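Researcher: Go.
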Amino acid sequence: MSFTSLGLSSGILNALYQKDFLSPYPIQKEVIPQVLKGEDVLGIAKTGSGKTASYVLPILTQLQNKEIGQNRHVDVLILVPTRELAVQVESVFSTFAASLREPIKSLAVFGGVSINPQMIALQNVRVLVATPGRLLELVESKAVHLSDIQTLVLDEADKMLNLGFKDEMNRIFKLLPKCRQNLLFSATLSKDISEIKTVLLKQPVIVNIEEEKEAFDQIKQIAYLVEEEKKGPLLRYIIKKDKLKQVLIFVSSGHRADAVASKLVKNGIFAVSIHGKQSQGARTKVLNQFKNGKISVLVATDLLARGVDIEKLPCVINYELPRSPKDYIHRIGRTGRADASGLAISLVAPEEEHHFKVIQKKMGKWVDMIDSTNIKLK
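Model: Structure:
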């Protein structure tokens, strides 16, 4: 199947062709026609499955056929849990909108930066991507109005609920018109998602793209059993031995991210950390440099890594295991995307062995464990 059979506008199809997007992913094949019909949709699919384009493309097609409304009365609202994801989603909108005969203005807004430039930039915006807290601040300042919203999207709704945005989202829902299209996307169908579905969605079309176990076949997984105090030397050994040029390292906290990156730099490996205590401008710069290959090693926490979406990222390393098996799957899913092969390496301390077995059981795939005792580390 090609994109031409899904009902998208000629402008969007031309943009897809120019960017060498020839065939849709499963989530896109199912969701795009339903969005164009005006249906409410609940889309369940793993991270990296093409969810963003599944709503961006039909929304832009719809907006091409609708008159521009009042200034500061946006047509489409996308709620996301993190600043990095807001920037990422907006970049997809702006990339495809720029190819249209009459470009459609989009904007990402989030906290942690000055609100004044965002208030000014909201002039003539039709698609707004926002984190809940900053959106409410902008509404209270009368910089944006939500009374004419035609389409509401909740992206990564599972994470939004886990991160405690529920009260803020309920306040936002009360500001929206009752007659609108609702699109909800999540990596999992949890109890919380089921509850919010009953509140938001009206007879939704449910698209559940089952995550097949063989989906991990394109990701080679390796684990090293290593004492906690030897993780640093082993990490440096792996990066140098395998000559890794672009690697994303996951840690549990911002403090640990700084420490790991600093130690790598002292040992001749160009690494940079990214975490919530840094300014938004600094984080955006680091992410762009990593995506462009100017930074070879990025050390990040789970939350910040949600803004890292690189089609052919060759390697991820779990310096520390995540608490949740779902987060482990999300981490390794940063590599092996778009049918490319990838490598996922985990450094497992003896006290983490049991937890790693739980992760493997939930994943449905066992990972070869290498004992690092006999590896000569400098």
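Model: The first strand starts at residue 41 and ends at 44.
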